[in-house]
Amino acid sequence: MSGVRLITCIVTCQDDPECYSLNFKFAFQLCELNNGTRLSVEPKYFVSSVDTVYLDNLYRPYRPCDNAPCSYGGACVVTNLYPGFKCECKAGYIGPTCEDCSEPYRTLGMETGKILDSQLTASSHAPGFEAFKARLNGPSCWKSAKNKPGEFVEINLGQKRRVKAIQTQSDPREENWTEQFYMAYSLGPCTDDQGWSVQEFVSTGPQCSFHLDENADYLLDYFHSVSNYNGQTGCQDVHSISGYSLNRHTYRMMSGVRLITCIVTCQDDPECYSLNFKFTFQLCELNNGTRLSVEARFFVSSVDTVYLDNLYRPYKPCDNAPCKNGGTCITTNFYPGFTCDCKPLYHGPTCEGKDFHSASE
């Protein structure tokens, strides 16, 4: 249409179901209605033009994500560049629309044997269930000699690796599997069970893939080595648990910060004993207690969150000698963080009770 005003061109485009954008050339008062937008067509068609304005149709916006262009569960994100969207692919898929599944997880070698038998050790093993049998899709598996907490299988990767997912499998001959376990890692030769960062997992069946966060680059992002940032080293225990937060004990919050900033702030604050970090909002919550020092009901599930103890201000309940009547304090990994091994005739959580009947006998 020629000889028209810009507002007339805009209204005409709004009323025309085929119009998705327009060009208006002021010198000629020329209105051009388009059946596409700068995002829906190749960039070569969106060119420089003197004394011209391009406008999208506000009432008929281009919504590329409405057509679900991302395959295999990929997330569609609207952008301001052609083709107007990008796909955030799930692990194992690549391509503009996540259409290529030819690159699954690059395994470290537990199934293929690239990780040698000599690199696998265990706290104990049942007859015929040695540590080197802890491999996927094998004829057997690893089993500890006793069914008790603290048993473990250890894998020496030989060098620093980035771990993005973990997969476990039941005994191929029986429907037996571990329902809950911890994954720990150490970057150095620490002794006395120290220097380990710990991640808790809960199994949902005989074979599960455990993904900490589809938006996280690496599982080990949750286990920042403080020595990488401030030069301090040493074998110090630190717990990092994904998917949980400590409630009602937060005394300070910071938004729009990185995880490492949150960690360092907690280390420098004498009131901080743990922190919650919410990735979605980049929200840092500093806590005046830990998951072991407060009642268990305050340690709750929280989506897209990681909880970390303060590496330099660990909760040491046994330092306060809570066990009475000569009882021995033993640290644990559950509230209240310790248990008391009582002497004969004494009982109770802190050995506070005495069996007088037995004493009289």
TrEMBL record:
Annotated keywords: Disulfide bond, EGF-like domain, Signal
Domain EGF-like, residue spans: 61-99, 314-352
The name this protein goes by in its record: Uncharacterized protein
Disulfide bonding pattern of the chain: C70-C87, C89-C98, C323-C340, C342-C351
Single annotated GO MF: signaling receptor binding
Residues annotated as domain F5/8 type C: 101-197
Organism: Desmophyllum pertusum
Top-level taxon of origin: Eukaryota
Pfam families linked to this entry: EGF, F5_F8_type_C, PAN_1
